[in-house]
Amino acid sequence: MNSLAQPHKWERFFWPVLTAGVFLAVWQFSVVWSHTKVFPSPHDVEKGLISLARKNVLWFDIVDSLRRVAIGYSAAAILGIPLGLILGWYPAANQVVNPAMQILRPISPIAWIPLSIIFFGVGDNAAIFLIFLGSFFPIVVACIDGVSNVPSMFRRAGRNFGLSPAQLLLKVVFPAALPRIIIGLRISLGIAWLVVVAAEMIAVDSGLGYLVIDSRNSGKHYDLVVAAMLMIGVIGLILDLGFRWLERIRSVRWGFRHES
Amino acid sequence: MLETKLSVEHVNMVFTRDAKSMPVLEEIDLDVRTGEFLCIVGPSGCGKSTLLNLMGGFLPPTSGSIRIDGEIVRGPDPRRIFVFQERGVFPWLTVEGNIGFGLFKLSRAERDRRIAHYIQMVGLKGFEQTYPNELSGGMKQRLEVARALAVDPDVLFLDEPFGALDSITRLTMRSELLRIWETERNTIIFVTHDIDEAVQLADRVAVMSNRPGRIQQIVDIDIPHPRDINSPRYLELRAGIYKQIGLAHQI
Amino acid sequence: MRLRPLAFLGALLLLWQIAVSRHPGHLLPGPLEVLRGIFELAQHGLLLKYIVASLFRVTWGFALAAVLAIPLGLLIGWYSRAEMAFNPLIQILRPISPLAWIPIAILWFGVGDLAAIFLIFLCCFFPLLLTAIQAVRSIPEVYVNAGRNFGLSPTAMVAHVLYPAVIPQLIIGLRITLGVAWLVVVAAEMIAVSSGLGFLIVDARNAGNRYDLVVAGMVMIGIIGWLLDIGMRSLERVKSFRWGYSED
């Protein structure tokens, strides 16, 4: 985009490595220079990670967090996609339900914690409910968006070839809306990952979020705190990349503008 | 005597929006013969696309009726297929998938046979597994025609199908369409604002006036195919239509 | 026609009230109790105070994030080498929930407003950064080439090519991020401060199981979040920004 010459291939590795190196160096340097007793250096974090891995605590926490996300997110998708498709297909229904959704949507899942504890008690189910809440609305909105943006030409062609309304929905509207639905699913998974960490900090006692809080509360082990944060970031990234890989499947690829 | 395939009787079309009514078509009377290639030309906004939509059954007329084979048109039907510009092909299906789209009622063997036949006919052999976003504009247009033909329709409606193509591809596509029509002999109703296109392709040309659209004149193009675009008769017919629309023929 | 959504809401409220009256010992409050709770808060002057506190934190965190992230993002989007350099770092930091930063926030800022604002800043920073990067990258090259063709100086390029081209996308990004900020402020307040709507929810429960106030807080959160969204959407409609929405 700029006026400099095209970057070379090796630069794709050089620059990020350089930045990461500078970042770590600055971090290490500031820890040393400020004589902090509490804030960990990169080296401390590395040691912390290894000790967590050795004690198997890390793996159990990762599995717990992923499990909660899997259940809450799947429930949101299974309920949200059909609802979103219907609301997108019948704009009248959408008009009726929309204001209620617009008011419920800005209420952070975290704000639902007291209520969810009433219904589910403290524990896994409450956390899963929160994840469900956080994932549900983005999925519904993306489906509505996808369906209502199907070009009318496609629907007309479908009717022209003699498709019944059910066939039209299945064979034309759904495939045409799929790219946007997938984007919604990807964003929603990202949100689910944010919510699980938050939910675990408050309502349960296992998982990566709990690890973050617990490491601090039980002795100010900030090296473990940062180690846990790092794991959260890496796994969240892997989930996101997994989805982007899905977007390359040929029968949906047409709906995405791909950056090189 | 050729029989009438499609007849438009006293059709009027008025659009109402926000209590304002906009007459778009006025007293359209038109008979289309079986196997005929009819072009509808007119200036932008004269309602020719609306007329086509009415014939295809996508809109009900405000008054009057449209009959195909004697029956009143009540809605879209696979016996009368609409061909849009190439944007109408389904991007999530391959070439094969698109052509086979309307064939879901047939047996597997019959469907495959037809797909192969029409891929061959429109010249897309070798691209069976290709997705539309990898095809050129002309190829996508041919794909859409193949998809329409595969269900063996009686009538084909084409709404400025070559409008988005460059002029060279357009010329190629016109001869392709004629070639296909001469084999299949469906009834074709073709809307265009390009008068040359109409005179090159059609048996008859219906010239429409400005909004509210009326049929001003129906011109018989009595030149046999292949047509020489330098022949005096061609130029004469073309000039006549230009004059009808009120355009000077010198720039 | 306009009444139907209201009727739907009314029906939901009615169902809620019925469900609650059939389970008298249940902790969940009905809509009437919630309404009384809202009035109680308003009477004590707490309602306004808490709303203002939450909005205050959101405004500061959001504004700081916007002021830093947008220019930075525009720069990174413009220079492909910069994007190569920073992208991996951004991609790893982004999925870390702002709440996971709480221990660090408390370490650096102590418990209080600053920590909450820091969390809001964090949750707004990355989405705005990415929006700005994306906005620059999607400027059609013809505009840039036209600018160069006419010999525009760098300042003129920014003012006449870059800025108008990215504004529509930036505004949408700002709206969405404001919604995220509103979600996070509630969470941040439940943990790190002693005022605001998030705090209300936690405190009402802890100091006596006042679930009517809990739900009252939730309702206020929902309504204000909705109003913020509507406000931002009306900004999108301002005519001079509208050229980006021609597809609508």
Task: Report what the structure shows.
The complex is a heterotrimer of chains A (260), B (251) and C (248). Chain A has eleven helices and no strands. Chain A is mainly α. The two termini of chain A are 13 Å apart. Chain B has a six-stranded mixed beta sheet with strand order 6-7-8-3-9-10, sandwiched between helices. Chain B is globular, with a radius of gyration of 18 Å. With 248 residues, chain C is mostly helical. Chain C has a single domain, classed as MetI-like (MetI-like fold, Orthogonal Bundle), CATH 1.10.3720.10. Chain C has helices spanning 3-21, 31-43, 46-78, 80-93, 102-109, 113-137, 141-149, 154-192, 197-206, 211-236. Classes of the chains: A mainly alpha (260), B alpha/beta (251), C mainly alpha (248). Chains in contact: A-B, A-C.
Rg of chain A (CA only): 23 Å
Biggest interface found: A-C, 65 and 69 residues
Shape label of chain A? globular
Mean pLDDT of chain C: 85
The CATH superfamily label of chain A reads: MetI-like
Oligomer: heterotrimer
The CATH class of chain A turns out to be: Mainly Alpha
At the first level of CATH, the class of chain C is: Mainly Alpha
SSE ordering of chain A: HHHHHHHHHHH
In percent, how much strand structure appears in the residues of chain C? Answer: under 5%
Please, what is the CATH homologous superfamily of chain C?
Answer: MetI-like
The N- and C-terminal alpha carbons of chain A lie at a distance of 13 Å
CATH architecture descriptor name of chain A: Orthogonal Bundle
Write the layout of secondary structure elements.
The complex is a heterotrimer of chains A (260), B (251) and C (248).
Chain A: H1 11-33, H2 42-54, H3 57-89, H4 91-104, H5 113-120, H6 124-148, H7 152-160, H8 165-202, H9 208-217, H10 222-246, H11 250-253
Helix pairs in contact in A: 2-10, 3-4, 3-6, 3-8, 3-9, 5-6, 6-8, 7-8, 8-9, 8-10, 9-10
Chain B: E1 4-17, E2 20-33, E3 37-41, H1 48-56, E4 63-68, E5 71-72, E6 80-83, H2 95-99, H3 108-122, H4 137-150, E7 155-159, H5 167-184, E8 187-192, H6 195-201, E9 204-208, E10 215-220, H7 232-245
Parallel strand pairs in B: 3-8, 3-9, 6-7, 7-8
Antiparallel strand pairs in B: 1-2, 1-4, 4-5, 9-10
Helix pairs in contact in B: 3-4, 6-7
Chain C: H1 3-21, H2 31-43, H3 46-78, H4 80-93, H5 102-109, H6 113-137, H7 141-149, H8 154-192, H9 197-206, H10 211-236
Helix pairs in contact in C: 2-10, 3-4, 3-6, 3-8, 3-9, 5-6, 6-8, 7-8, 8-9, 8-10, 9-10
